[in-house]
């Protein structure tokens, strides 16, 4: 009390008065809690009167003093409860008792001693508590900001859900177009294979036709090499030879008949005259010539039939060769047309494939961009959620630590009060 320049002697405590104890308690309150804001003005009283509807007959100054005294006693009772005097009332101020004052002063001394011993740790704890409170406020502010960002992101996500649906529809359309493109590619490959097979078949057919032409040409050349020149008078000679032979045979038959007639009239001839032997020789020669002529005639007929057969064969082969030439020309024209159509079709297919590839690349790039934006958004949302979870965990941990520190502080205070 002397350090605070408050006059207080042992006699004052042995015979306490309300004025002396009021000075002591005010000094204690200034030390314990600092200056107390117990200002009360007439305007405050009038406001309370108007709100409560109570009629006040005393002067306003008395009401203000009573209000200030009531506020001081309420705060003093709260502090005494913390010090270790839970039964402190207004009577301890207005009607103090020596024993009661001794008990209260003893509690105050013990509290001051305990506070002096633990003041460093208390202020350190309070400093840490203030830091934690400041960090907690910052974290709460950041959490509020993150919640606002999360709400904004949710709103943006809800606003972008139609676009996501559009992107999904576009992706499905692209997948369908990709399937159509693959189907067309397979169909184009099948058509290309069919054209290649037709080309190979035409090439093989052309090769066979060329071989047939070569064989027919060789046969014609062989026939031309074996051809025999027939004289122009052959037909007339062939007609005259049988007539001459028939005439000769008739003469021989007539001569024979004459000889037989003569031999029947005359005597038998013992020796054949010279003329008769000559005739016999002539007849033998004629018969030999006849046989030779018949043989030559048969050979000539066979050669003639062979020539006619070869002529017929040549006449038959010539239309076939013309037909083959015409087929070859038609096949060449068809092959040329097929080649031109194949080139045009290949160019058209390549142009369509290039356009399809370009369209597919464009749509694929758009889809990749959409996927990239969506992945970035999901990544940011995931980061925000992780930060919020981490912040919530840190906040919970800090609150638990603060709670434990306050519980420890309260336990120490209660233990100190029990010791006193």
From TrEMBL:
Ranges of residues in domain Kinetochore protein Nuf2 N-terminal: 1-128
Keywords attached to this entry: Cell cycle, Cell division, Centromere, Chromosome, Coiled coil, Mitosis
Name under which the protein is recorded: Kinetochore-associated Ndc80 complex subunit nuf2
Organism superkingdom: Eukaryota
Coiled-coil regions listed in the entry: 129-265, 385-419
Compartments, as annotated in UniProt: Chromosome, Centromere
GO cellular component: Ndc80 complex
Gene3D superfamilies tied to this protein: Ncd80 complex, Nuf2 subunit
InterPro entries listed in its UniProt record: Kinetochore_Nuf2_N (IPR005549), Nuf2_N_sf (IPR038275)
GO BP annotations listed: cell division
Pfam family, one: Nuf2
Family membership: Belongs to the NUF2 family.
């Amino acid at each position: 009390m002397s350090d605070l320049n408050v006059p207080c002697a042992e006699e004052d405590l042995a015979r306490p008065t309300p004025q002396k104890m009021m000075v002591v308690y005010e000094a204690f309150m200034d030390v314990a809690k600092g200056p107390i804001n117990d200002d009360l003005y007439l305007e405050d009283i009038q406001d309370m009167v108007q709100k409560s509807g109570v009629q006040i007959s005393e002067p306003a100054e008395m009401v203000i003093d009573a209000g200030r005294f009531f506020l001081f006693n309420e705060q003093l009772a709260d502090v005494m409860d913390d010090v270790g005097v839970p039964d402190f009332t207004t009577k301890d101020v207005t009607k103090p008792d020596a024993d009661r004052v001794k008990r209260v002063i003893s509690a105050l001394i013990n509290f001051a001693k305990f506070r002096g011993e633990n003041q460093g740790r208390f202020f350190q704890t309070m400093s840490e508590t203030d830091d934690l409170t400041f960090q907690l406020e910052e974290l709460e502010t950041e959490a509020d900001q993150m919640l606002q960002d999360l709400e904004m992101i949710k709103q943006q996500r809800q606003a972008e859900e139609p676009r996501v649906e559009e992107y999904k529809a576009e992706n499905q359309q692209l997948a369908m177009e990709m399937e159509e493109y693959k189907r067309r590619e397979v169909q184009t490959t099948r058509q290309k294979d069919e054209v290649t097979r037709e080309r190979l078949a035409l090439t093989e057919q052309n090769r066979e036709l060329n071989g047939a032409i070569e064989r027919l040409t060789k046969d014609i050349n062989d026939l031309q090499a074996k051809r025999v020149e027939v004289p122009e008078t052959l037909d007339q000679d062939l007609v005259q030879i049988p007539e001459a032979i028939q005439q000769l045979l008739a003469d021989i038959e007539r001569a024979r008949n004459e000889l037989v007639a003569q031999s029947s009239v005359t005597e038998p001839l013992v020796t054949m005259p010279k003329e008769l032997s000559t005739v016999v020789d002539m007849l033998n020669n004629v018969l030999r010539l006849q046989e030779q002529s018949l043989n030559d005639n048969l050979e000539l007929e066979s050669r003639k039939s062979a020539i006619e057969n070869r002529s017929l064969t040549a006449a038959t082969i010539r239309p076939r060769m013309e037909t083959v030439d015409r087929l070859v020309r038609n096949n060449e024209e068809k092959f040329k047309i097929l080649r031109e159509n194949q080139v045009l079709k290949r160019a058209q297919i390549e142009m369509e494939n290039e356009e399809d590839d370009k369209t597919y690349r464009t749509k694929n790039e758009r889809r990749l961009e959409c996927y990239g934006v969506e992945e970035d958004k999901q990544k940011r949302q995931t980061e925000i959620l992780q930060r919020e979870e981490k912040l919530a965990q840190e906040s919970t941990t800090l609150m638990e630590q603060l709670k434990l520190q306050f519980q420890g502080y309260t336990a120490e205070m209660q233990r100190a009060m029990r010791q006193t």
